[in-house]
Amino acid sequence: MTERSLEGRVAIITGGAGAIGRATAARLARAGAKVAVADIRGDAAAHAAEKLTAEGLIAKAFAVDLAEESQIVRLAQDVVGAFGRIDILHNNAAAGGGVLDADKTLLELTAETWDKAFAVNVRGPMLLAKAVVPHMLAQGGGVIINTSTGASEMPAEDARIAYGSSKAALNTLTRYIAAQYGPKNIRCNAVLPGVVMTKGMEKLFGQAALDVMNARSMLRRGCTPDDIAAMVHFLVSDDAQQITGELFRVNAGRA
């Protein structure tokens, strides 16, 4: 067994084909978990799962649109059908580039963009938690980790109002799940990344803007997907069995 072993456990990771999702899937699989790589991009999810199985790890891809409740319910059913149980849910998917590109200031914001952000960033995680909690209750417990953002606590002056607001709602959802199901041995926490250095972030903000953001952090650098994966691994492990209802900032000490 590896350090912080997850042998015998089954994990769902949404947004599993993205940078953070891939890093988390790999980290949990290498710790012994069977991993369900879930993403709206089915081909990309399959590629991510194939890379893990090539290492001799156990992973399976699932295509899911978190804006569609029927697909969310089916995902939980399909994962149980494939692996027999669900121990870990990492609600990591977020509204994509099209929504972020349109998500600007209050006066520029449309109701459509607002609704799309909340549908994927809050409604989706709520519905998926609702779908997996009965399975966790039946087996005696489980862990849910939500990927939020530092923007939920530090609003920007000129952009991302729907994104930040929806993730702030996700923070509150995290605490409610923890409060309601803690007595049943289900823990729920959130990870709040700061600037995560990925190709997607560079495309969204530009390298010059990222350099400015990183300069504002205490460590003078951005985070990596592996940094987020390490925190998720800790929080789903038995080492964190007394931790629930908390928000964990992984942001290089960004002020």
Describe, in plain words, how this protein is organized in 3D.
There is one protein chain. 49% of the residues lie in helices and 15% in strands. The chain has a single domain (10-197, 226-250), classed as Rossmann fold, CATH 3.40.50.720. Helix 1 (19-30) crosses helix 9 (225-236), helix 3 packs parallel to helix 5 (111-139) and helix 7 (199-205) packs across helix 8. The chain is of the alpha/beta class and 255 residues long. The protein starts with 9 loop residues before the first strand and ends in a 5-residue tail after the last strand.
What topology does this entry show?
Elements: E1 10-14, H1 19-30, E2 34-39, H2 42-54, E3 59-63, H3 69-83, E4 88-91, H4 97-102, H5 111-139, E5 142-147, H6 161-181, E6 186-193, H7 199-205, H8 207-215, H9 225-236, E7 247-250
Parallel strand pairs: 1-2, 1-4, 2-3, 4-5, 5-6, 6-7
Helix pairs in contact: 1-9, 3-5, 5-6, 7-8
Gross geometry: globular
Q: Give the uncertain stretches in residue-range form.
A: none
Taken as a percent bin, the fraction of beta residues is 5-15%
C-alpha termini separation = 38 Å
Number of domains: 1
In short:
By secondary structure, the protein is an alpha/beta fold.
Sum up the structure in keywords:
single chain; 255 residues; alpha/beta; Rossmann fold; seven-stranded parallel sheet; 7 strands; 49% helix
